Records
---
Amino acid sequence: MTRSHPLVTDLVLSPFGASSNELLDAAKCVEDSGFNGIWTLDHFSGAVAGKSWSHEPFTILGSIAAVTEKVRVGTLVANMMNRHPVHLASAFSSLQGISNARATLGLGSGAPPNTLFASEQTMINRQLHKDITRRKRLIETIQALRCIWDGGKDFEGEFTSFSNLTAIIPPGLPLPIVVGANGFEMIKIAVEYAEGVNIRVGPSIEKLVREASILAPNDGFEISIHENFDLNHPYGGDVDSWMELGVHRRACMVSAPFDLQTISDIGLRLNR
């Protein structure tokens, strides 16, 4: 599939070790500098990044939405293991309302066992699952969310259920979902169940982007990549190579203390 979209750049504001005010100041700078969107991570413990704290993503994004007007906001990605789908639906619909429908729900399957990020689940005594089980649970989570959004009262799955559910979601709010992927199987889930895929940059990134482009069900399906923001590069990274590969959006991670002047300079340069 040949993509006609221009490449846009978003920033992912790392919550690790950043104060709430730092995150809000960075968000205002990101919008003023012409970036398209602001994302944040879903980690409740700063220990997984060697920091002393983190932040709850929907709370931070709601605050960011309240002090901005144009930028899109979203989770990259919300860990399905951290919330029951009903709680996730309530959190995201609240963010969607505060942002005037500028929000996107980035959703992931959680970390595999025996990895650093999986340590968060062991902190709260959650069972850790193998890849295939987590993929099944992710599909079920998306199905449950769609059910809630469509006004469904009952859902019975292998991993989650609810019954007699009423009065959860305000009417008229969109539910755009992007699946975080680092392999082919997750890309297939994104293509079938979501509006886009976000692929973390790694050794197989070119192959995975090409596979996503081939499988994309329509021109509206968005392919994005997740990489670190290079503050020493005039455009924060190699924009041309991503455009040539067919990427629509890049989401670039920045960490506190945020270099607002450099972020502003790069943003204005990108949007001349």
---
Amino acid sequence: MTIARRAALAALLATPALTAATRAHAQGAEIGTAARPLKMGVTAGPHAQVMEMVRDIAAKDGLVIRIIEFTDYIQPNVALASGDLDANSFQTQPFLEQQVRDRGLKLVSVAKTLTFPMGIYSKKVKSVDALPQGGRIAIPNDPTQGGRGLMLFAQAGAIQLPANADVRVTVADITGNPKRLRIVELEAAQLPRALDDVDAAAINTNYALTAGLQPTRDAIAIERSDSPHSNRIVVRQGDEEKPWVRKLVRAYQSDEVKAFVAETFSGSVIPAF
């Protein structure tokens, strides 16, 4: 568990609405009220920025949201499944499906949010073709995002994968590596900082933007516009039709959020609704 994750949970448990003295009252309150805010997990960066706008819009509809930031892709689903969160917004549908299969989590997507095209970034070369013989390239070390990174390097011509490859592909599935590139698997949030140590890295846009990288300006290769990797709002199975879920989705998929995304991210993040 990361330090940020521990701090987030410590703050969550220390909140008056969730102390032992008031937990019984909070449990009886409706989710999304002042007595029991909707606990929404997001990753730091654009997901958090957009959720702050969603929180303000939802408040006008009587929905109170508390945002909890994470620095990895695993803990938000674990926290949601265990009841520490009510919903999260950070992951693609393929990633969610992989997590459900691998971890047995009873989670379900309820709405599309944003598309973050993954890009390849480098401080050492200006194109993927210029990667050196025996160079080091980095990809995320988590399921589906790592496969997504490999597929992007294959799209750019650095490696070859089976014709039917999808996000479940791994390093072991590589069928061609003419430059004998060495592949380093790192936590997704660490990839921007690794650019000094590798020749190129496949980085999710939310982490790229947080590090000051602009996909449309700095990426030497980027996912095609028809990428299936739109992000989702996710809740526990059984909560899909709850009133607070409908209010949350309505706030997120609003014209105000579309305008905010367009103005703030200049095409690097695209509404998927």
---
Amino acid sequence: MMPVTTTLGDSPIVLAMPHGGTFVPDDIAARLNAGGLGLSDTDWHIDKLYEGLLSGATIVQAQFHRYVIDANRGPDGASLYPGQNTTGLCPTTDFDGNDIWREGQAPSADEVEARRLAYHAPYHAALAEALAKTQARHGVAVLYDCHSIRSYIPYLFEGELPVFSIGTNNGASCDAQVEAATVQICRAAPSLNMVLNGRFKGGWTTRHYGQPETGVHAIQMEIAQRAYLAAEAAPWAYSTHVAAPLRAALAKILASLDSLARSGAMPKVIGA
């Protein structure tokens, strides 16, 4: 199993999908408990949700599950949300705060480092390469980090999550025009609510790569899974009917960002 797959395109948009993978090596799966084996914290069908929405987009997908190692955490495992419940670089609990490993089977520090080298590092090497190629071609690159999550997770946040949770690290990870274009389309989407820099302000990927002064802009989109799944429970079935309004809005967002990046409205950085 290749830890990451990359589909190169000629658009200035790079779609990153760090949490859609479901691969767990047999030796690691044998140590997960029944709850962990359910893989409930997957960004289910995130590739299908975005499939065909923007011709020419570069797509970087992690194939491994976040319980192996989380590709959207920094290599040092530091929390981006101090004082709030979260999960780490190699999670020991699920999003509900329940243990995912059999007793005594959680990964050691040495094992976490081995997994980082085997999975996390190749994913980010591929993403960095894709962004460099895109930025070299266009003078700018827009990293659009694709995520989804259950609507109700009291351990992580109160109440029902909006359909669109947009994260730009409070505006630091992208040009203001990227944020504004995304917000405008989300606000106009019928029956699909949104929040900007709420509970999810952008993970490590958004904050690490989003350096507008270098021509690389990053934005995270966290989608509430009720907007495209038949139910937010196993077997986590994708619903074409439910997803249709969401896909229409996402297509408009990606088209708008593609047009913005090509327009010259954002400063181009050549040879960065």
